[in-house]
Amino acid sequence: MPECFRSVLERLDQDNELLHIRKPVDVRYISPLIVQADKPVWFHNPIGFDVPVVSGLYWKRDRLARSLNWPESELGVRFPQGIQRMMDPVSVEEAPCQEVVKSGDEVDLTELPIPFLGERDGGAFISAGVLLARGEEGVVNAGVYRLMYRSRNVTSVDLVTNSDLRKCYEAAFKRKEPLPIAVCIGVHPFEMLSAAFKAPPGVSEMSIAGGLHGDPVRTVPAKTNQLPVLADCEIVLEGEIEPVGWAVDEGPFGDFAGMYTEVRWNPTFTVKTMTHRANPLFQVIQMPWENAWLGAVAMEAQILEVLATAGVSTVAVRVTEGSACRWSVIASIRKRAGGGKNALMAILSLPDTKHAVVVDEDVDIFDPEQLEWAKTFRVQADQDVMIISGAQGKHIDPSLRAWELPRGQLPTTSKMGIDATTPEGIPAEHYEIITHPFRDEVKLESFL
Amino acid sequence: MSHSSEIADRILALLKKEPMSYYAILRALQDVEYRVILQAWGILREKDLLARDPEGNYLLR
Fold first, then answer.
1. Of A220, A265, A378, A390, which cross-links A246 as Cys (Cβ 3.0–4.6 Å)?
2. pLDDT 10s digit of each residue in chain A, 448 long?
3. Do residue A269 and residue A400 come from a single domain?
4. A53-55 and A282-284 as β-strands: parallel, antiparallel, unpaired?
5. CATH number at residue A418
6. Do B34 and A28 touch (CB under 8 A)?
7. B47 contacts chain A (CB < 8 A)
């Protein structure tokens, strides 16, 4: 049986990597306490609630690595291994996540300590929900979507940005039908990581999670809509996204780019049934870094994959922290003639990337000075800077002025690629780097 | 009248004076348990009494 959310907590606890706060805490203060803590936090006693809160598992790269039980240096490499050995989920008849079942009038979202995360947020948000929906082709899509609390059985769901879930909803909306969904809270980091990954069409993100576990993810049919929910998660919200369109106010929300979204218009999610463990834990993903780091692993994996598909021999890739681990990409490649441009086209074809820099394998992409050197001496702006207009954009980017668009309309963006590989035809000796003589023979310390 | 209904009325009274952010509302209700605010908020949403201004502040419909 694969690890679950609480077995990860046990492991972190054994390693003294989990902070227990047993004093009563007002849920208003959970957000500022999470960001002050130097490790993930388990709030045992949120005032007024019977459900403890756990948060901060992914706040930094090293915490994410610990939660995944992977070496920090192997994050971008291990994830693709999961993709390569995907395992379909297995269905079980009884599941911990259904130890308690509440339907209809019994559903009360205020039983959950749904926190207020950012000063300008428009309300309380469920931020750690893995949302499952069946796509047109029958494959179950999983994604991480925020839900803004509205009432005891209704939230809004953010479907402004282009996503698999938005496509599912648009199809249902066109038919004037509700879209059945299930939201799993308190899932294993592999499941969260896979859900945060935009899998190719026809691929179930939970099959990738199975590949990461090395064991199939256990699912159980949801009580009301038969969606295969994650059997070992903590809490499941089953229900429907209503065919009301982009009709209700949602946000602002301090999002993964570290900035607030504006007030948006989004559909509503009506919770028909809530199931949970006998003593559930409520996970909170604190913005922006928990979300950014989760996305970084999947982004780097996605970039490696698209470069491989384009026939580019890649040495290393990284997303930059300044771009919220998503928008800007740096890659080093073993270049063939024209390979720099091919690599840029491949990277920029991904929906999230906005800027890309490609360098030769002799440049260390983690060294800002080497990158600057390559951009300075291997780039002619009129030949090596690629600008693409009118590509898919993301509302969160203020430079797109998305607030000026009509409701429901998606923004477009321009993208830029810089080919900082050695231009064709320039002999390598022109780039010979100064090396200092006798450097292996003398040491400064010997003369001090 | 339940406690959450009383708090819903307090929120209405606050918003009658001026548009407020959710944060400002939480600050104005420091004496109220957080869960009761969620419950009161649910009452106002179910009655569709809340509107928004472009800055994200809440106001009465």
1. A265
2. 889 999 999 999 999 999 999 999 999 999 999 999 999 999 999 999 999 999 999 998 889 999 999 987 678 779 988 888 999 999 999 999 999 999 999 999 999 999 999 999 999 999 999 999 998 888 999 999 999 999 999 999 999 888 889 999 999 999 999 999 999 999 999 999 999 887 888 889 999 999 999 999 999 999 999 899 999 999 999 999 999 999 999 999 998 778 888 899 999 999 999 999 999 999 999 998 898 888 888 888 889 989 999 999 999 898 888 898 889 999 999 999 999 999 999 999 999 899 999 999 999 998 999 999 999 999 999 999 999 999 999 888 999 998 899 877 889 999 999 999 999 999 989 999 899 999 899 999 999 9
3. no
4. parallel
5. 3.40.1670.10
6. yes
7. no
Domain boundary among A257, A290, A323: A290
A62: domain CATH number is 2.30.110.10
* B33 vs A47, A119, A150: nearest CB: A47
C-alpha to C-alpha distance for A303 and A326, rounded to whole angstroms: 11
Say if A438 falls within a structural domain: no
The residues spanned by each domain of chain B are: 3-60
Residues in A touching B42 (Cβ below 8 Å) = 109-110, 149-152
Interface of A with B in 188-227 (CB under 8 A): none
Residue A447 covered by a domain: no
Is the ipTM beyond the 0.95 threshold?
yes
Tell if the CB–CB gap between A152 and B42 is shorter than 8 Å: yes
Mutate to test the interface with A, among B35, B39, B61 (most CBs of A within 10 A): B35
Q: What's phi and psi for A173, nearest 5 deg?
A: -65, -40
* Secondary structure E strands in A163-247: 179-185, 218-221, 228-230, 235-241
Question: Can you give the residue range of the structural domain that contains A387?
Answer: 310-431
Q: Which residue type occupies A416?
A: M
A342 in a domain, yes or no?
Answer: yes
Closest alpha carbon within chain B to A154 = B42
Sheet holding A313-319, edge to edge: A313-319, A328-334, A355-360, A412-420, A385-392
Q: What is the pTM of this model?
A: 0.85
Measured distance CA(A231)–CA(A280) in Å, rounded: 13
Question: At A308, which helix (H) or strand (E)?
Answer: helix A289-309
